[in-house]
Write a structure and sequence with these properties.
This protein is 32% helix and 24% strand. It has 374 residues and is an alpha/beta fold. The protein is elongated, with a radius of gyration of 23 Å. The protein has 2 domains: 253 residues, Zn peptidases (Aminopeptidase), CATH 3.40.630; 108 residues, Alpha-Beta Plaits (2-Layer Sandwich), CATH 3.30.70. The chain has a 6-stranded mixed beta sheet with strand order 1-2-6-3-7-14, with helices on both faces. Strands 4-5-16-15 form a 4-stranded antiparallel beta sheet, with helices on one face. A 4-stranded antiparallel beta sheet has the order 10-11-9-12, covered by helices on one side. A hairpin with a 7-residue loop joins strand 15 and strand 16.
Length: 374
């Protein structure tokens, strides 16, 4: 029996149990199986567990609160239990360890990190000495689709907290995240007039042609120097090649580094109009994750974590990333540190993996954050 409470092999065994319960967002029954397992891990700990029933086709959310420190603003730990991988993907990507890599669906994004936060909480409870602040661990079931059913819960808990720690995976060799782009999603609906493409094309008004105009307008909004990206990722339209298309549709993704950029671009996208007489263009959507800008309180939290990491023997660098997370919802009003999960690579792919060597140092870092935040 090892005397090291952060031994990688023991942590990895816990992660394996979570990974082997597949939990695609669209399978609430499977997500809830994992919620059952996670909740059972708190039964012998000084903590209360609240389960928020799922809705709109999503699984349950789980809130585990330490029995101490809940009367004052404390530490909120944000994790998600859903994955992008469809049911049965574990047959293609079974849990296995090869050298320093452990593979499995969702192991890097983010079951590994979620488990590290749980393991560090167990150690705090075992230490006997209570952490200075109360700790609340929130596990949501719908992060991979934009957190539609958990956002209000995340924001409410975030406003009550003094610090927010997010267990999304590390980036680029162990960097933590101190800023993320805001994310907007939009639907474009175009209505024209059908006609026979061979005998009466002049009677038609092509929705597809107008969609081409809209795409050019959207593409022109890209500004890589500013970090603004607009991507038309899905297009549909028409019925047959010999029919002038009556309808067309597109789905659009917007990424912006600041709220100023969002305030400029969201109205621009929503305000797109048709250039063709007899064709209507309707755009719906909005920002679904605000930008996570590095605040003074967030920077101070990062410096504290960097000092702790140095004491543990590793450098903790930070990075700004284009991907969104639940940290976007808390960063505008609460000191937030993201990317505290495992190091690895291949999120959302058939080779998703964590690096076993990252487990002990990153679990110890979370433990030290729990011990020292006040």
């Amino acid at each position: 029996m090892s005397s090291n409470p952060f031994e990688a092999a023991a942590i990895l065994d816990g992660i394996r149990r979570w990974v082997e319960i597949e939990s695609p967002t669209e399978r609430p029954d499977q997500v809830n199986k994992l919620v059952d397992l996670v909740a059972s891990g708190y039964r012998d700990l000084p903590a209360t567990v609240e389960r928020v029933a799922g809705r709109d086709g999503c699984g349950d959310h789980l809130v585990a609160r330490s029995s101490w420190g809940q009367e004052a603003p404390g530490v909120l730990v944000l994790s998600h239990l859903d994955t992008v991988h469809p049911m049965g993907f574990i047959e293609r990507l079974p849990f296995k360890v090869e050298g320093d890599s452990a593979f499995g669906p969702g192991i890097y994004d983010m079951k590994g990190g979620a488990y590290l936060a749980y393991h560090a909480f167990r150690r705090i409870c075992a230490d006997g000495a209570r952490a200075p602040l109360g700790i609340t661990q929130l596990y949501v079931s719908d992060e991979e689709i934009g957190s539609p059913t958990s956002r209000a819960l995340i924001e409410a808990e975030g406003r009550k907290a003094k610090y927010v720690l997010v267990t999304e995976p590390a980036r680029d060799g162990g960097k933590i995240v101190t800023g993320r782009k805001g994310v907007g999603r939009f639907d474009v609906f175009i209505k024209g007039a059908p006609a026979h493409a061979g005998t009466r094309p002049e009677d038609g008004r092509s929705a597809i042609r107008e969609l081409g105009n809209v795409i050019q307008t959207l593409e022109a909004m890209n500004d890589l120097k500013r970090g603004v990206t607009v991507n038309v990722g899905v297009v549909r339209g028409g019925t047959k090649p010999n029919v002038i298309a009556e309808e067309a549709y597109a789905e659009v993704d917007l990424r912006v580094p600041t709220m100023a950029d969002a305030n400029e671009l969201v109205p621009k996208i929503l305000g797109i109009t048709s250039r063709t007489k007899g064709v209507s263009v309707k755009v719906t959507g909005d920002l679904n994750r605000p930008p996570y800008e590095k605040s003074n309180s967030g920077a101070a939290l990062y410096e504290h974590a960097r000092t702790l990491a140095a004491e543990l023997g590793f450098d903790l660098l930070d990075v700004f990333t284009g991907g969104g997370s639940d940290g976007n919802f808390t960063a505008p009003h609460t000191a937030t540190l993201d990317g505290l999960g495992v190091d690895g690579k291949g999120a959302h792919t058939h080779y998703e993996q964590l690096y076993v060597s990252s487990l002990e140092p990153r679990a110890r870092l979370l433990h030290r954050l729990y011990q020292t935040l006040r």
